[in-house]
């Protein structure tokens, strides 16, 4: 089942060193499992999409500032979370992507 995200923002697909393709939804499910269900898949996916979009526009990423920016942007999607929750999602996302051994990311 597809996880609802932000339509205007891309959803990456990751190619691993084993030549497998992993969808953003699969990564989001792993993030939610790592956070023990404390965050819904919709909140996690929207957070990741907004953070990736914001980080692309920054020269240097500072996690606290990024978390605050994403927190504010999520309000436009009717999602209210704290910067600490955003940071937890982003740290879990980074961990899960690192575990995949990604060699290519395709935006769609």
Major beta sheet summary: 3 strands, antiparallel
What's the rounded overall pLDDT mean?
Answer: 95
Total strands: 3
Instruction: State the share of residues found in helices, binned by percent.
Output: 40-55%
Number of H- or I-type helical stretches: 4
Task: Give the ordered list of helices and strands.
Answer: EEHHHHE
Q: Nearest-angstrom radius of gyration?
A: 13 Å
Strand order of the largest sheet: 2-1-3
Note down, in words, how this protein is organized.
The protein has 108 residues and is mainly alpha-helical. The chain contains 4 helices and 3 strands. The chain has helices at residues 24-34, 41-56, 63-75, 83-100, and strands at residues 13-16, 21-23, 102-106. A 3-stranded antiparallel sheet has the order 2-1-3. Helix 1 (24-34) packs across helix 2, helix 1 (24-34) packs across helix 4 (83-100) and helix 2 crosses helix 3 (63-75). It starts with 12 loop residues before the first strand and ends with a strand. The model has no long low-confidence stretch (mean pLDDT 95).
Looking at this protein, list some descriptive labels.
3 strands; 108 residues; three-stranded antiparallel beta sheet; mainly alpha; single chain
Write a compact overview of the structure shown:
By secondary structure, the chain is mostly helical. The protein contains 4 helices and 3 strands. A 3-stranded antiparallel β-sheet has the order 2-1-3.
Topology at a glance:
Blueprint: E1 13-16, E2 21-23, H1 24-34, H2 41-56, H3 63-75, H4 83-100, E3 102-106
Antiparallel strand pairs: 1-2, 1-3
Helix pairs in contact: 1-2, 1-4, 2-3, 2-4, 3-4
